[in-house]
Fold these 4 entries.
Entry 1:
Amino acid sequence: MPRALAFEHRFVAAVVDPGVMDVSTKWLTYLPAELIAMLQAGSKDAFNAAMAEAAAKDPMLAQAMAARGRPFAKPTAYDTFKAATEYNLRDVVTEIHTPMLITNPDDETFWPGQSQNLYDNLTGEREITHFLREDGANFHCEPMGRAETECRIFDFLQDQLDQRN
């Protein structure tokens, strides 16, 4: 959503749950340093061979890679990881001018700290809303606190619409 907003300025408001500056950060935490080096160096064949060897030894890894790679629709592990590293907002975040609500739950599973990072890098109107463990609204997308999440999201959107009328 935020990347689209960098190029499309007709939206009145937007919500991201949670905020993400760089999709690849979580992916790269699972790779050993030598595989990251291969990825950064463009060593496609070596990277694919190492990933195939690891997947052959660990069926759960093979399953996880297949599931995570599906949205990218890339032919190899290297291509998938390379695509994930390109899903970031570094070069476009200052072009986002749409008012944005960013959720920031305690214990964010996939992108800890990225909601705050997105908030800090945006230059336009933005709001960050924290969801607390004590309220049962922690973890990725606040699964046990959806009613509270939806209230905050709809209140934000209503406020934005009211300002435009």
Entry 2:
Amino acid sequence: MEEGRLEAIWIKRVKRGPMDPVAEAKLVAGQGIEGNANQGGNRQVTLIEREVWEEIMRNLDASLSPAARRANLMVNGVRLAESHGRVLRVGSCRIQIYGETRPCDKLDDAFVGLKEALKPNWSGGVYGEVLDDGRIEVGDTVAWDQT
């Protein structure tokens, strides 16, 4: 079974606002991350892979913080590409993955060319819906739900 680790958590207080790093967060089923600007709908949580981010940075010869991607969670050891419809377990919580997060124009504010670099192969990450209430923290195990 593919298993990884939760590397980082960011909460966005307001739409298009800064991404605040936190060590832990509360997930609310059907809503998202407590205190995050995006609540409800299919796009409650966004996730990126550390390995993909590091490869993009090498390709761009850049050294941006992964917070520049504006995702809520960064994982390692678990491939997010082509994961539509799968359920990802983060600690004791589950997230239903609905699709690929498309890179937005705001990324080029951080580094010109970042938006384009994140387009291929689901490199911009994924988005989904929180299925369980619970707390997550950096270091939690991350794995695809087999049930």
Entry 3:
Amino acid sequence: MAMEKFILTPELGRLVKWLRILGFDTLYFTAKNISSLVITALREDRIILTRNLHITASPGIKLFKVKDDMVTDQLTQIIAGLGLKLDQAKLFSRCIICNAELVGIAKKEVEGKVPGYVFKAQEDFSLCPTCNKIYWSGTHWGNVKDTLKEIGALN
């Protein structure tokens, strides 16, 4: 079963990062042109997530209005409201900067490209093939999982 894909409007910037952390293909639409937003959503079969009151549902458009202010509350609302199923294997599988799918990279390839203590402490690394950012499972992994457990999104 394919995971949902999203396109978010500018007022949901923090949520973009979180959805990418969860492994969802998430575009951040910062242009002012609502028509372009709708066209992109339709063309790429994406759900529009917004707090913008001027964007209204039309036939064929998947639209979800986010009501909450806090990002954890927004996640709770979206997961419940859309019936999303989180796949732990997909956590941290996308670049939080550009949305590309990450690929594994050999430890020897990152030497000198990550802090020395990280190189010594970590064995597994991922690379964004688009923006070349290198990722590893630091303390933020546990923090994210704790937050997801806290909001009832992970068992």
Entry 4:
Amino acid sequence: MAIADGMRDLAHQIETATDSIKTLWPEKPRVGMILGSGLGGLADNIEDGVSIDYATIPHFPRSTALGHQGRLVCGQLAKTPIVAMQGRFHRYEGYAIHEITLPVRVMRALGMEVLIVSNAAGGINPYFSAGDVMIIQDHINFLGQLPATENSGTASLPRCHAKTDIYDPHLIDMAQTVARRANFRVHAGVYVAQRGPNYETRAEYRYLRRIGADAVGMSTAPEALVAAEAGARVLGLSAITNVCLPDALGETTGAGVVETAARAAKKMEQLVLGILISLAESAGNRENGS
């Protein structure tokens, strides 16, 4: 299929999914969230909203990963209209990048201005501990495919992605300020996205650390890239679920990752709520002209 035809089909999918959501929740979200493994509990705090199973939204994939509920929760959190994904989609589930990133495009079409994307990740930086939170400053994308852009050229030669500063520095500063006020430490570093589904070998951990990675997972990069290119501000947060020291590797299991992510979720919740409050305050200041 030519890229132009593919983009027209994608535009139709976005419109159909967006209209379906609007029939159940007609508000305009300011913030979108993608909640990764073990972190979906934050959506339980959303008030005055609706929960929509992915299976009922046209063209949405199905979430099959451990710890991903597979529903869209729309409502109010910290007096902010929000739409949250409880569960995401991965390359290792068999999905193409355009399917993984479709919900981000839909959230943007609904009106999302800020995307907060979270994940569970293995810590490669030796100064990290299980249960820590890392703010993503940048990423390395090893997923093997990039999402199509709305500005694609011909079928044989699509244009390059122009967005390089994906993670918003002001949101990063805001998250660090919230953590300091809450009296807990956060790290800032580089996230590397691998296709998976596997945990890396000792040699792979050494390689990833050598090229500049601080944490490794199997998601986030495509969603963040699409959101930034669409004009949304992006904040990425990683819950460090295990420490990947190549000379002292312990056993890592999916259940253990989810359990540790749930422990880190308390810090993540404090960060997200603090950021939402700060965003609401800054919006109020702009409206008042201060």
